[in-house]
Amino acid sequence: MSARRPRPVRKPVARTPVWVAPAAIVAGLAVLVAAFLVIRWYVTPLPPKAPSQEATVQIVSTITTLPASEFDSVGQGTANNLIKPITGTPLKGPSGKLEVFYYGAEFCPYCAAQRWPLIIAMSRFGTFSGLQTTTSSSTDVYPNTPTFTFRNATYTSQYIDFRSVETTDRDRNPLQTPTAAEQQLVSQYDPGGTIPFIDVANRYAMTGAMYTPDTLGGMSLRAVADALKDPSSTQARAIIGSANLTTAAICKANAHQPGTVCSSSAIQSLEKNLK
Amino acid sequence: MPRLRLIAILVSLAGVAVSIYLTVVHYAGFVPACPVSGAISCEAVLSSPYAVIAGTSIPTSVAGILWFAVSAALWARPRRSLLLAWSMLGLLTVIYLLFVEIVLVGAVCLWCTAAHALVVVLVLIAVGRK
């Protein structure tokens, strides 16, 4: 009888620990997020070079002298109607005329977008001077959106007053402080603190931008101004559409004055959409 | 019921709740409760063209409701191959949505990130389960 051979022992095979696959997935996700951040940094447009004072005047002139036919042609365009009716004592400016109040900040990309139609709309009732160019923050969403600032601007009109507060510059440093009365308006009609906040004579209010700031991404101010001359351009349909909605709100709040602006077909049509 | 399975079902239900909230926000037209600071902006993400399923007006959060609901059902009677396949589908979608948020929109929505985190947790449970 032969001696029984010892049973061969199988060499244990090292199994992959359970935690390896989940850890690999987490690590892979971290690498992908890092890669996405690098791509985002690479594709973020640089702030456009600030135009000279003379060029700024030309750009402002371009956007504030658009022909009436263009406003009629665009109508609401692609603008979102964010105008909501509010109630309160009619807001009046220092001269006793009804007042449009703007509250925003230079860093804010939505304010950057909304200043274009606000300037265009207000310029149908009066004249701005002292508008300067800037861009929204480089470190916020829709970075470096080209725009203007109201910080040193003045407005004259025989129909309506305009007041503005830019609370911070594009680097979020404090700039202008609202008066107690203006702060009261913001607290009452914009309790969520969304900017920009625009109050049309305490009759209508809107917060946020009526179009996405991405519409202006990577463009210079001159390029945006030129695009506004073409009513079929993406920028014109967004900005002039927003300006028309704002104009309709002002017309409705201000007894349809002046008739040359408020009696146009586009404004009349948009007024019907305002409560 | 094993503890991991129970956790996975609860995570799936949390995902359904977050997705329902985002869907309601979309159809009600209001801005979700979400801080706006620097690159954190739910409004920027949820008002972007990528917030709806391409070619429709259906918010992507509806797809989230479906994915989490199916996930909960799969975890109730788990089959490893199905769970892995479903988890991978979720993970690939999350990677695409991260690309959209970071690269295309340049903003991060905290509610969306919560949903993405829940998907990743479910993927990790599925992959790490023996």
Q: How would you characterize the overall build of this protein?
A:
The complex is a heterodimer of chains A (275) and B (130). Chain A is 38% helix and 14% strand. In chain A, strands 1-9-8-2-7 form a five-stranded mixed sheet. In chain A, strands 3-6 form a two-stranded antiparallel ribbon. In chain A, a hairpin with a 3-residue loop joins strand 8 and strand 9. The model of chain A has no long low-confidence stretch (mean pLDDT 92). Chain B is mostly helical and 130 residues long. Chain B is built from five helices and no strands. Chain B starts with a helix and ends with a helix. The chains are: A alpha+beta (275), B mainly alpha (130). At the A-B interface, helix 1 of A face helix 4 and helix 5 of B.
Give a quick set of tags describing it.
heterodimer; A: 275 residues; alpha+beta; five-stranded mixed beta sheet; two-stranded antiparallel sheet; B: 130 residues; mainly alpha; de novo design (two linked rop proteins); elongated
Topology, pairings included?
The complex is a heterodimer of chains A (275) and B (130).
Chain A: H1 20-43, H2 53-64, H3 68-74, E1 84-85, E2 99-104, H4 109-122, E3 126-129, E4 132-135, E5 146-149, E6 154-157, E7 161-166, H5 180-189, E8 197-200, E9 204-207, H6 221-227, H7 234-253, H8 259-262, H9 265-271
Parallel strand pairs in A: 2-7
Antiparallel strand pairs in A: 1-9, 2-8, 3-6, 4-5, 8-9
Helix pairs in contact in A: 2-6, 4-7, 7-9
Chain B: H1 3-28, H2 42-46, H3 60-76, H4 80-105, H5 110-128
Helix pairs in contact in B: 1-3, 1-5, 3-4, 4-5
Principal-axes geometry of chain A comes out as elongated
Q: How many structural domains can be distinguished in the coordinates of chain B?
A: 1
User: What gyration radius of chain B follows from the Cα positions, in whole Å?
Assistant: 15 Å
The CATH homologous superfamily of chain B is termed VKOR domain
Distance between the termini of chain A: 108 Å
Strands of chain B, total number? 0
Residues in β-strands, percent of chain B:
under 5%
The chain pair with the largest interface is: A-B, 25 and 23 residues
CATH architecture grouping of chain B: Up-down Bundle
- What is the chain-wise order of helices and strands of chain A? HHHEEHEEEEEHEEHHHH
Which CATH C-level class of chain B is it?
A: Mainly Alpha
Strand content of chain A: 5-15%
Round the mean pLDDT of chain B to the nearest integer and report it: 90
Query: What oligomeric state best describes the polypeptide chains here?
Result: heterodimer
Largest sheet of chain B: none
Low-confidence stretches of chain B: none
Global structural class of chain B: mainly alpha
Mean pLDDT, all residues of chain A: 92
**Backbone structural class of chain A:** alpha+beta
The number of helical runs of chain A is 9
